[in-house]
Specification:
There is one protein chain. This protein is 34% helix and 23% strand. The chain has 408 residues and is α/β, with parallel strands linked by helices. The chain has a 6-stranded parallel sheet. The protein starts with a strand and ends with a strand. The relative contact order is 0.08.
Amino acid sequence: MRKFKIVFLGCPKNFVDTEHLCGFLLEKGFEYGDDGDHVFIQTCAFIKPAIEESTKVIKEYINKKKKGEIKFIGVGGCLPLRFKNIKKIFPEIDLVIKNLKKDEIIPSTPRFLLTKGFCYVKISEGCNERCSFCVIPCIRGNLRSREIDDILSEIKFLINNGFKEIILISQSTGQYGIDIYKKPYFKNLLKKIEKINGDFWVRMMYMHPADIDEEIVKIIKNSEKIVKYMDIPIQHFSENVLKEMRRRGGKKKVLNALEMIRNNFSDDFYIRTEVMVGFPSETDRDFEELLNGLKYYKINRIAIFKYYDEKNLKQKIPEKILSERFEEAQKVAMELMRESQKRLLNKRLKVLINEKDGKFYKGRTEFDAPEIDFEVYAKKINKIEIPNFYTLKIKNMKRNFDLLGEIC
């Protein structure tokens, strides 16, 4: 029997497409395993480092193929969508995979679930935003939403099959439904998910600050299922930079969103964000405004990105200054994340434990998304059901900010 291996690079949206690719291959009679001689590489091409990583991995497997260690290479994800001539660049590739057909939101192939305890649910594909630094609309196209009943059916299926955390994803989550319902419909989706029976968490990722209002904050506050956590890609705090980035709503919407959350939840709501340093128009004053904003709003989870010239904007900031700003922003981010974790010490927290790791159980609080945030470790005791929710007393913090706790 032919056996295939998946090499995954990229974001959760791409991961859902990867699970559908696995389902398709299994349906065609392939067997899944890490020692497969048919290798399918799911690539990322969002920014220059991602392109470089994807290219490096492709070259590694081309060398393996030349040595006879593997027989077949398939390449999918965003790299072939961004570079249409990839087969000419790498003639050794046997198949260029189109994960999505034109106007498709999720592939029509079966889905083979690769996660434990949690599952990503893609509610839309593409993006209508036209941020000056981003190529996603060029790669993935305009926003295309799934019908709400289709999403709800998938979530019910996942809950009935033991999944404990549903993570709603898209390129611009708050804009869900604007194409088919003629207005943003995300809040309606949350209300309907709230009514689904079962013991599970709902997590939302990639919420544009301009889509956060009092109603959505109230929905979260009154919910028994939606976690007190949100991924909000702020990008910057400077009005000057946000305007040049063409970020919808500008600084006003960023501050409004953060003020609403902090006024309603104080420190009990964890905010994750992504910010960019070194945008061509960023002055020293703009950069200080960015750092001060992160500190003032006590942002809990922070990813710092350097500006990469993806759309041929004129680069004005020297690499030395760019690197210095990146390092300084990283230090601020690390300190804010350390303080956020320290606030959890000695508390009793609900934790989703979903795997074993040597002598420990491993899980996450509601304040942490899988694969990008922090984890909680608890010593093994009597056999417990996995995945499931347990109350843990948080005892200590590791050097990497992961937490250590005891099952109560």
